[in-house]
Specification:
Blueprint lengths: L2 E2 L6 H15 L3 E10 L4 E11 L8 E12 H21 L8 E5 L3 H8 L8 H17 L4 E2 L4
Parallel strand pairs: 1-6, 2-5, 5-6
Antiparallel strand pairs: 2-3, 3-4
Helix pairs in contact: 2-3, 2-4
């Protein structure tokens, strides 16, 4: 499984690139947007959300959210949002909502979260959410050799 990240700097360029990507790939790709936030700038009560757009289905996006039941930081909320997106995509594939041949892309705006996923053995502060993501990544990979992209905003 390949996990790829791409960082950008200009919001207008990113917005145009995402809009173009959706229009070009919507017919054969599950497209996800994930985001996490805390009540204060870095630490506080947290929530995570993901919007999952199945391929070729207009106005049938799935929205999933989760409130974290503890004081947390913004990176943990971002990781939780990625976990929500992964779990939703797996549900779509296993329930037959989408065909096995489609691709999957999860957009995130947190490079630190992607780095933590890729180097989870180094980041023990996030072991609980990594313990949630790791089985999802393995299940996703084992369902069929497919690529997962995590482009950065």
């Amino acid at each position: 499984m390949n996990i790829t990240s791409v960082a950008g700097t200009d919001d207008v360029i990113i917005d145009n690139a995402v809009t173009r990507f959706i229009s070009e790939h919507h017919s054969n790709t599950v497209i996800c947007f994930s985001d996490g936030a805390t009540t204060d700038s870095e630490v506080g009560a947290g929530c995570a959300a993901a919007i999952v757009i199945p391929p070729g289905r207009e106005n049938q996006e799935i929205q999933v959210t989760e409130l974290l039941d503890k004081i947390t930081d913004s990176i943990e909320t971002e990781l939780t949002a990625i976990a929500l997106a992964l779990e939703s995509v797996i549900d779509m594939f296993t329930s037959g909502v989408v065909d096995d041949e489609v691709n999957t892309v999860i957009f995130t705006d947190c490079k630190a979260a992607v780095n933590i996923i890729m180097e989870s053995h180094v980041h023990s502060n996030y072991h609980q959410v990594i313990a949630r993501i790791r089985p999802s990544l393995l299940k996703f990979h084992n369902m069929r050799e497919r690529e997962l992209y995590l482009p950065l905003k």
